[in-house]
Design a protein that fits this description.
Elements (H helix, E strand, L loop, with lengths): L3 E2 L5 H10 L4 H12 L14 H10 E2 L4 E7 L5 E7 L5 E8 L4 E4 L3 E3 L8 H5 L1 E4 L2 H16 L7 E4 L9 H12 L11 E5 L3 H7 L7 E5 L5 H7 L8 H15 L3 E7 L7 H11 L4 E7 L13 H13 L4 E3 L22
Parallel strand pairs: 1-2, 6-9, 9-10, 10-11, 11-12, 12-13, 13-14
Antiparallel strand pairs: 3-4, 4-5, 5-6, 7-8
Helix pairs in contact: 1-2, 5-6, 10-11
Bound molecules: iron/sulfur cluster (SF4).
């Protein structure tokens, strides 16, 4: 079977590949439309191109680089997690979350992650490699096809699965451009969120990309020392510098930044911690998303109680910080990032 992933080619590279097969430009447009508008999963479906070209493409390229190895559904069937096998026998996870009016997909950008956040199963796995542009996109395409069979659509994409997207910057940016390409998938940039632990040089670079994609920063503490314990990347990119970079991002882009804050019992969920966070973010165009930490076998920390989460949210709101309490999803299927893969990857 062909190994090369056709989704790894951008349009110019596809034109070039077809040129080498003696094909004119309009064939590239037809194939592009089949790949990204119609989401064909077999070259036989490209009925508007000659059969000898379909055969030549099928010999060279695959349209299905991901083999589902395991799929878990939450009891209410609203959250679904798939572990996908890759060509080199590694695996990544993708999580679909269904809500009343939207279907949101959480995708991965790396196999494992080098950042080592203490509460994260992926962080405890170590790092294997970055995903290619095509492998990132293939997760989305898989679930778009899946939802299509139910007459539904994917409405939101979050880059919050396995890995730190800004450490796989080029492939991540290329995937964003492909998703939002008006001649292909045409997915609304404002319905995409990219999440980082705070890789400052890449936040600065991202602010100059002219993409309307949302940025979320995983904060988890407003105290520099505590944050270094929870998110070791803070030792390289300390809180003060990170917040300056975030302020600069909002000033340059005029876009609101989201801060993710996982509430951990008796660690970062106190009233003084809330006051400190409010002080840190004062005056910034931002929004805080609070969530009680998802439990995992990989770490002993526990999520805060509902009452503690609400009290933390109230303390932020009273100080003028926009805040939302997010519901935990899929606890029983270990929907926190990396929790399924960490038990399956040959590390
Ligand atoms: S939380 Fe994100 S950045 Fe941190 S270790 Fe897990 S995957 Fe990596």
């Amino acid at each position: 079977m062909a190994d090369a992933l056709i989704y790894d080619l951008d349009f110019e590279e596809l034109v070039q590949a077809l040129n080498e097969l003696g094909q004119p430009l309009f064939r590239a447009r037809q194939i592009w439309s089949g790949l990204y508008e119609h989401l064909y999963d077999d070259f036989s479906q490209f009925s508007n191109i000659p059969s000898n070209l379909r055969t030549a493409l099928a010999q060279r390229y695959t349209l299905s680089p991901l083999s589902p190895r395991a799929s878990l559904h939450s009891k209410d069937r609203l959250t679904e997690k798939t572990l996908f096998g890759l060509h080199d026998n590694l695996s990544v996870e993708t999580v679909l979350m269904r809500y009343e009016e939207r279907n949101s997909l959480c995708i991965s950008t790396q196999v494992g992650c080098p950042m080592g956040c203490v509460f994260c199963a992926t962080g405890q796995m170590g790092y294997q490699r970055g995903l290619s542009t095509g492998e990132i996109l293939a997760q989305v395409i898989h679930y778009m096809r899946h939802l299509q069979t139910e007459g539904k659509k994917l409405t939101n994409i979050v880059y919050m699965g396995m890995g730190e997207p800004f450490l796989n910057y080029d492939a991540t940016m290329a995937s964003l451009r492909r998703l939002t390409d008006s001649t292909g998938m045409n997915f609304g940039a404002r319905r995409i969120t990219i999440s980082t632990v705070g890789i400052i040089p890449k936040i600065e670079k991202f602010s100059r990309e002219s993409l309307q994609v949302n940025l979320a920063v995983s904060l988890h503490s407003a105290d520099n020392e505590l944050r270094s314990q929870i998110v070791p990347a803070n030792r390289i990119y300390p809180l003060k510098n990170l917040i300056s970079a975030c302020r600069a991002y909002t000033e340059l882009t005029h876009r609101r930044i989201s801060f993710e804050y996982a509430l951990i019992k008796d660690l970062n969920d106190t009233q003084p911690a809330a006051a400190q966070l409010a002080g840190l973010l004062k005056g910034m165009l931002c929004h805080v998303n609070l969530i009680a930490l998802n439990p995992s076998k990989a770490y002993p920390l526990q999520g805060s109680s509902k009452e503690k989460v609400q009290a933390f949210a109230d303390a932020l709101a009273e100080r003028g910080i926009p805040v939302t309490v997010r519901l935990r999803r899929g606890i029983e299927i270990q929907a926190g990032c990396g929790q399924l893969a960490s038990s399956q990857n040959p590390l």
